[in-house]
Hints:
Blueprint: E1 2-6, H1 11-22, E2 26-31, E3 45-48, H2 54-63, E4 67-72, H3 79-84, H4 86-106, E5 111-117, E6 128-129, H5 140-158, E7 162-168, E8 170-172, H6 190-198, E9 205-208, E10 220-221, E11 223-225, H7 226-238, H8 240-247, E12 251-256, E13 262-263, H9 264-275, E14 281-284, E15 295-296, H10 299-305, H11 313-331
Parallel strand pairs: 1-2, 1-4, 2-3, 4-5, 5-7, 6-15, 7-12, 8-11, 9-14
Antiparallel strand pairs: 10-13
Helix pairs in contact: 1-7, 4-5, 6-11, 9-11
Amino acid sequence: MKVLVTGGAGYIGSITAKALEEAGHTPVVLDSLLSGPRVFVRDRAFYEGDIADRSLVRRVVEEHPDLDATIHMAARIVVPESVEKPYLYYRDNVAGSLELFDELAALGKPRVLFSSSASLYATKESFEVTEEDPLAPTSPYARTKRMMEEVLTDMAAATELRAVILRYFNPIGSDPDLDSGIYAKEPSHVLGQLVMAARGVKDTFTITGVDHPTRDGTGIRDYIHVWDLARAHVRAVERFDEVLAEVEQPSTIINVGTGEGVTVRELVASFERVFGQEVPVSEAPPRPGDAVGAFANVDKASRLLGWQSELTLDDAISSALAWGEKRHEILGYE
């Protein structure tokens, strides 16, 4: 199969492109390079530009008429920034995606695999959420993801477009071969922050929010190794038509996580065990838009995709630490 990967120069996008290649497929990357580094594209077919540029999307399809599906990952993703600059998030994540979806449908490329987020879920007493549970997105970022789910559902019902929507939980870790990983100079992701504190780049790791209704007061997350997440994308594009045939709908939503909840304090303890020494920790109030969290019920992913996570939290932490040692070689900065 040949697969268009929007955002394919990013953290998850570049690792998914590699997983596609390892499964015998050919990724074609479309990325604005707003944040993702060009080096992560490697030698893949690459188009630099915006997903809202219909003429560029047409050129991609003209030059790759055998595209089988699109994995749409391109998006702004930093929660606090979305609170400060909501216009940019609605413009790029919502309005831009609308143009992309409409153009793909017009070009006869109707299969869209969409990157959504577990940050949509309302807080639930048990914290384990199914795809049918109530939603209560707490940031402009999360609301853009919810809007795009609704857009895809409506467009799939009315047009030839077809959509499989993956609600990611919390990807961590790096490419197994350390070819790509977290690239931000100061990552907002929790594990990137922990690595920086462990390596002395930051004075402390800050736990944001310690009064949540969880077992130790810190947020709860479902930390999934990014390579397992990439594998889920491969399974979803390979089984795209079969998935929709089984649910008998033109679109569907699938949780992608490990099925286990880990608090931030528990993550720190696991990190220190793998790292072999303590990490200085401080505490602060929740950031604007932060959610208490949830973990995935993954029964639907197992049933429809024949997929489940295989790598452990320790595996992900080890790969993140290894990437932290190597990334300056690839990116040119610590």
